[in-house]
Design a protein that fits this description.
The chain folds into two domains: 94 residues, Pseudouridine synthase I, catalytic domain, N-terminal subdomain (Alpha-Beta Plaits, 2-Layer Sandwich); 143 residues, Alpha-Beta Plaits (2-Layer Sandwich), CATH 3.30.70. The chain is 20% helix and 31% strand. Strands 1, 2, 3, 4, 5, 6, 7, 8, 9 and 10 form a ten-stranded mixed sheet that branches.
Amino acid sequence: MRRLRFEVAYDGTDFHGWQVQPGLPTIQGILEEIIGGMEGKPVQVAGSGRTDAGVHALAQVAAVSLENRIPADNFRRAVNRLLPGTIRINHVREVDLEFHPRFDAVRKTYEYRIYREEVCSPFERRFVYHHPYPLNEAAMLAAAPLLEGEHDFTAFAASDYRDAEGKSKVRKIYSSVLTRDNDMLIYRVTGSGFLKHMVRNIVGVLLEGGKGNLGAAEIRARLMPGCKILPGPAVPASGLVLMCVEYR
């Protein structure tokens, strides 16, 4: 038995997220079907996290255990030949059998892109949130760093079937920065981990700040332990990309 670690890039528009769901197209489901066919039996492809329906990835990290001795680069070529053009595998290498993309990860970085001009190109629309309406962008840029540090992000997390387990929703954000790049507002956030819809809810709150509906104090209030403010509003999935996952 051997374990292969690889990066997966995908356009998530036409998929119901990463995680296998019966009867629905998902990234994990397609990978397991193709790699399982090569292995001659079912396989489990583990990912660094569960991206939601419509969310994209530049470098999702995944791993699979195989008996097949196919060289790593040949594995990449063989799987890519069978994948749809919206999914591609990169940088395959052998790792210890104990490696797990999710549990061994120490940092993840996401980007969210907001297109600000009146007309959004059809070549951009699948990968941005088109918001051409007036915003106080200076207020948004100033508010983004308020999320940095270790906080309880309950007020930024959508309900999850795992909530019944009572796990902590405290996460550490190492960097939270919003910048203007030509016609785009780009929010880039690096953290120890992320809750369901957490980044989309953060961007939604920053937008509310840009609209003048929330001030810095009200954003800080959402980070206080025991906060009862409901999450949201969440921005669409189209603008969100998992950029990279870091390991020790």
